[in-house]
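Fill in residues.
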């Protein structure tokens, strides 16, 4: 051990420790402020994606999902009759995709009250649901929950 510290050395160490603590606090505040600003700027982007881009994407992919499901079911069954219940808005795209599938016996039933991201496929007393609407709603809740949680963290931090 070295010689005992003088009052000036003790005072200098206290000042350095206080400066260090203040700098850490300012750095922490700056980090949280920057993080908060970044999250605030990202929220409108994610909200726009969830409310506009993803529903459009779901509407475009639903017919292909239906055809894939029908083809998968048809590969296991011979002479199966398929009934596809969809929103009228999905019919044109579904018909275009089914044109090349001449061997399938498919009856399209329009249901005006159905969401555009929803479809039912019925065959041989079996019904399969494709529900992209629920997937989108769940994703929307996840995004909103994330930003709500981040807001709570920023307030408590």
């Amino acid at each position: 051990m070295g010689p005992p510290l003088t009052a000036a050395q003790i005072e200098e160490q206290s000042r350095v420790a206080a400066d260090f603590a203040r700098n850490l606090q300012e750095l922490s505040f700056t980090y949280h402020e920057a993080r908060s600003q970044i999250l605030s700027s990202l929220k409108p982007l994610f909200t726009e994606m969830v409310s506009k881009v993803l529903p459009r994407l779901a509407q475009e992919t639903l017919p292909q999902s239906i055809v894939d499901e029908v083809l998968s079911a048809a590969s296991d069954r011979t002479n199966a009759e398929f009934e596809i219940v969809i929103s009228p808005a999905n019919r044109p795209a579904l018909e275009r995709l089914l044109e090349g599938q001449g061997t399938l016996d498919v009856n399209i039933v329009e249901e005006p009250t159905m969401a555009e991201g929803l479809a039912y496929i019925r065959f041989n007393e079996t019904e399969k649901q494709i529900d992209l609407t629920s997937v989108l709603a769940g994703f929307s809740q996840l995004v909103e929950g994330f930003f709500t949680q981040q807001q709570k963290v920023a307030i408590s931090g």
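The chain is about 65% helix and 15% strand.
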